């Protein structure tokens, strides 16, 4: 048995995620045996400084070279600083930062050195969660679905439901909570729905020097340009059968569809693109979900939430309605997945990433024995 897993099987796992919006690192503790969630614990956030964020931004889309190395150093230092604040941690799940993602081409790259973090924290660390899945023919994303399955069981759901994460990119997990295990055929279906906040953020930065359309205030003043929306939906991505995944900038070209529009109309139109992309995605679900639970920063955008309600036939609510923390769900997911990796349990399957067979993605690095005995 792995040293991090005691007799009860319950592990105090600390997960850390740095998402596509490059705002900072989220970290959260959960107690889990990798199958069932036992309890949720403390969480913390560390924002990147402007200098750090610029170094990360410069490395986006690169696979190797000095910019990638500099980004890796930022990720390692920021995580070591944040995660050191937590006590009594058995195991760490370290996602790192995705710099490039081309699962059917050059692969997927998350920077961050789990071995170095294990030494810095003197704790075992699971990291590099996506590359095994890609090597086995999978998309390498999304990976949160196995945790969403555990969340559905945690709330004792009885009917199919869906989780929607609205970060830079949107990803949806349809869950049948009546199945015994997440890797069972038909238990899950997962895929990236399309762009979420990334295009609106890019518009706000380019036109107004702001990082986001806070609460959807600008979009609320605008009109959606239906022609631009139709051109967006003509993208072949929406015809592809899931599982399927995206890189942050795969839909960067949508900004060209709104160049002639006013700031407010452009914001409204890019916001609507996220909602209609989710609407198209729902058609892929095996059965209509009873409800859609929204996580990630986009749930704070009132206009986006209204547009989702207009586009979907089920109730749409932030995950807080079932007692979860929508800012920390991804960090919690990588804590849970770390425990699964340590136990040799799968973290993805054909229905979540398209991988040939269920796979436990991730590398487990231990601190040197001398540190563990200290
Ligand atoms: N109050 C708000 N109003 C509108 N949008 C918001 C608000 N708060 C956050 N957001 C949006 O959510 C984004 C951050 O979301 P989140 O932290 O879930 O993304 P991420 O984890 O970095 O991305 P991903 O899940 O794609 O890896 C911000 O960049 C912004 O666009
Ligand atoms: C390659 C990569 O890092 N993908 C992220 C990204 O951000 C959202 C969406 O695109 C999702 O596919 C994934 O993250 C979440 C945490 C996941 O793997 O479930």
UniProtKB/TrEMBL annotation:
ATP binds at residues 19-26. GO terms for molecular function: ATP binding; kinase activity; phosphotransferase activity, alcohol group as acceptor. Keywords: ATP-binding, Carbohydrate metabolism, Kinase, Nucleotide-binding, Transferase. InterPro entries: Anhydro_N_Ac-Mur_kinase, ATPase_NBD. Its EC number is 2.7.1.170. Gene3D superfamilies: 3.30.420.40. It catalyses: 1,6-anhydro-N-acetyl-beta-muramate + ATP + H2O = N-acetyl-D-muramate 6-phosphate + ADP + H(+). The keyword Membrane does not apply. Pfam families: AnmK. Signal peptide: none annotated. One of its GO terms (biological process) is peptidoglycan turnover. Pathway: Cell wall biogenesis; peptidoglycan recycling; Amino-sugar metabolism; 1,6-anhydro-N-acetylmuramate degradation. The keyword Nucleus does not apply. PANTHER family: ANHYDRO-N-ACETYLMURAMIC ACID KINASE (PTHR30605). Catalyzes the specific phosphorylation of 1,6-anhydro-N-acetylmuramic acid (anhMurNAc) with the simultaneous cleavage of the 1,6-anhydro ring, generating MurNAc-6-P. Is required for the utilization of anhMurNAc either imported from the medium or derived from its own cell wall murein, and thus plays a role in cell wall recycling. Belongs to the anhydro-N-acetylmuramic acid kinase family. NCBIfam families: PRK09585.1-5. This is Anhydro-N-acetylmuramic acid kinase.
């Amino acid at each position: 048995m792995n040293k991090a897993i005691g007799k009860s099987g319950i592990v105090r796992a600390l997960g850390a995620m740095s998402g596509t919006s490059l705002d900072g690192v989220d970290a959260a503790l959960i107690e889990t045996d990798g199958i069932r969630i036992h309890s949720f614990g403390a969480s913390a956030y560390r924002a990147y400084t402007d200098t750090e964020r610029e170094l990360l931004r410069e490395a986006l889309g690169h696979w190797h070279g000095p910019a990638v190395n500099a980004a890796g150093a930022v990720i390692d230092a920021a995580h070591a600083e944040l995660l050191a604040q937590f006590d009594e941690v058995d195991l760490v799940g370290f996602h790192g930062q995705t710099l490039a993602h081309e699962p059917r081409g050059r692969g997927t790259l998350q920077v961050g050195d789990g071995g170095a973090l294990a030494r810095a924290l003197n704790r075992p660390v699971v990291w590099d969660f996506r590359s095994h899945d890609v090597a086995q023919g999978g998309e390498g994303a999304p990976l949160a679905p196995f945790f969403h399955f555990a969340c559905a069981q945690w709330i004792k759901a009885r009917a199919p439901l869906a989780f929607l994460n609205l970060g830079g990119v949107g990803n949806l997990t349809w869950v049948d909570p009546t199945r015994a295990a997440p890797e069972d055929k038909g238990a899950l279906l997962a895929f990236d729905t399309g762009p979420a906040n990334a295009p609106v953020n890019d518009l706000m930065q380019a036109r107004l020097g702001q990082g986001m359309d806070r609460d959807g205030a600008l979009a609320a003043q605008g009109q959606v340009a239906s022609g631009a929306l139709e051109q967006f939906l003509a993208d072949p991505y929406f015809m592809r059968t899931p599982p399927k995944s995206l890189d942050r900038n795969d839909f960067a070209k949508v900004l060209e569809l709104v160049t002639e529009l006013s700031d407010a109309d452009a914001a409204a139109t890019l916001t609507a693109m996220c909602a209609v992309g989710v609407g198209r995605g729902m058609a892929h679900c095996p059965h209509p979900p009873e409800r859609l639970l929204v996580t990630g920063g986009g749930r704070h955008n009132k206009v986006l939430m209204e547009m989702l309600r207009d586009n979907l036939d089920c109730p749409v609510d932030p995950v807080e309605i079932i007692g979860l923390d929508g800012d920390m769900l991804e960090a919690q997911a990588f804590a849970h997945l770390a425990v699964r990796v340590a136990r040799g349990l799968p973290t993805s399957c054909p229905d979540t990433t398209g991988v040939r067979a269920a796979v436990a993605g991730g590398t487990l690095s231990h601190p040197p024995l001398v540190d563990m005995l200290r």
